[in-house]
Design a protein that fits this description.
Shape: globular
Strand content: under 5%
Largest sheet: none
Radius of gyration: 17 Å
Helix content: over 70%
Order of helices and strands: HHHHHH
Structural class: mainly alpha
Length: 188
């Protein structure tokens, strides 16, 4: 059952992400912070904004490296040199940040846990696909680079890198939703 769910989530990643985004939006309507108008609220909102900023830049950075290469070669430089799943890592930071911008600690932590649990089977399935496609090269990469939590001491990047601007531009549209959610939350 879990494998079927992971397979579905993998093949419908955008739809699943949008579903969670809409569910989150309605959750914000239903949950009102008990910490309004105090220093804790300001701190949570600020931390949330910082996490959303890091997530936005991190997802753009990660997308830059896979634009046009995702299915043709194993990417192991840039953000992929410090973490095998930087897009998921930065998404987790972004949704945690969005949760904190509601000025509730519990919503930020809940979103983080939901994404960690939800991403686990998707990551496992993607790694199975990469292992079948790249074999020993992927196994060596897995032995060296952590799956989810970045190890910054491993960072390396090339002098130059060619990307597909059309694919990268499409990714920019996906990333802007983190920032829009913060604005929508403030309007709510």
């Amino acid at each position: 059952m879990l494998q079927q769910l992971a397979k579905f989530a993998l093949s419908h990643r955008l739809a699943v992400s949008r579903f969670f985004g809409i569910a989150f939006f309605f959750t914000v309507f239903a949950v009102e912070s008990t910490l309004k108008a105090n220093i804790v609220s300001a701190i949570l909102f600020t931390i949330g904004l910082m996490l959303v900023g890091i997530a936005t830049v991190g997802r753009l950075w990660s997308s830059l490296y896979i634009s046009g290469y995702k299915n043709s070669q194993l990417i192991t430089s840039g953000p992929y040199s410090i973490c095998r799943n930087p897009l998921y890592f930065f998404s987790m930071l972004g949704f945690t940040g969005i949760g904190f911008t509601t000025e509730t600690f519990t919503l930020g932590i809940a979103l983080m846990l939901i994404l960690l649990i939800g991403y686990a089977p998707v990551i496992k399935r993607e790694e199975e696909l990469l292992r079948s496609k790249f074999g020993a090269e992927f196994n060596e990469y897995c032995a060296r680079v952590p799956r989810f939590i970045p190890k910054f001491a491993m960072f390396n990047e090339p002098e130059s890198y060619t990307v597909n601007p059309k694919l990268f531009r499409r990714t920019m549209g996906d990333v802007v939703w983190f920032v829009w959610f913060v604005g929508i939350i403030k309007l709510v």
